[in-house]
Amino acid sequence: MRAEWRNGTGGTDGYAGNRRRRLPGDPTQAQRVARMIRVDQAGEFGAKRIYEGQLAVLGDTPIAPVLQHMADQEREHLDTFNRLIGDRQVRPSALYPLWHVAGFALGAGTALMGEKAAMACTVAVEEAIDEHYAAQRDSLPDDEEDLRAIIERFRLEELEHRDTGLDHGAAQAPAYRLLSTAIKTGTRAAIWLAERV
Ligand SMILES: [Fe+2]
Ligand SMILES: [Fe+2]
Q: Most distant CA pair in the chain: distance in Å?
């Protein structure tokens, strides 16, 4: 499953995937792992806010328990990264207020378009997160097996959320392709930002 290619010249600073010689100015291994924890904590916070936004609109409808189950899993993901950010003294994303508002707005906004659009939002976000977690899993250093196992478990739960969205008619949402592409692009941009800021 993991990329096992090695550049063979040594001095790669423990890169597990994407191995190449570290250049001056490149982040150290510890900085790379800290960046991963920062973006994951921000992302799980954003995910929790998306479901809070959806529940604010759809909380009294028959779909609410399905949303609540996913929200509960996001809560557990967030709790885990909150613990890691504390244990490892990683600076959280400075854009927390943005994730607070943007996550809720995305959840509530899509829910206002209807249940299927809310599900389309989940599918698009989780597809982007699946890619993101898979890339992290493959590039974590060899001595981060515990973190790799956490990320892989969460990735599989995100895929369950994607499947839940598809089972509940995501693809029948109005303007599904457009909505999905926009949300996925936005999610990737948010990941890029939260890794850095
Ligand atoms: Fe999550
Ligand atoms: Fe999720």
A: 60
Which numbered ligand comes closest to the C-alpha of 125? 2
Q: What is the pLDDT of residues 57-111, one digit of tens each?
A: 999 999 999 999 999 999 999 999 999 999 999 999 999 899 999 999 999 999 9
Residue 18 in any domain: the answer is no
Whether pTM exceeds 0.90: no
Task: Using the mean position of ligand 2's atoms as its centre, give its distance from the Cα of residue 135 in Å.
Answer: 16
Spacing, Cα 60 to ligand 2 middle (Å) = 21
Query: Domain of 111: which CATH number?
Result: 1.20.1260
53 part of a folded domain: yes
Range of the domain at 164: 29-196
Q: Is 11 exposed, middle or buried (0-12, 13-18, 19+ CB in 10 A)?
A: exposed
- Whole-angstrom Cα distance, residue 42 to residue 172? 30
Quote the ligand 1 centre to 23 CA distance (angstroms): 33
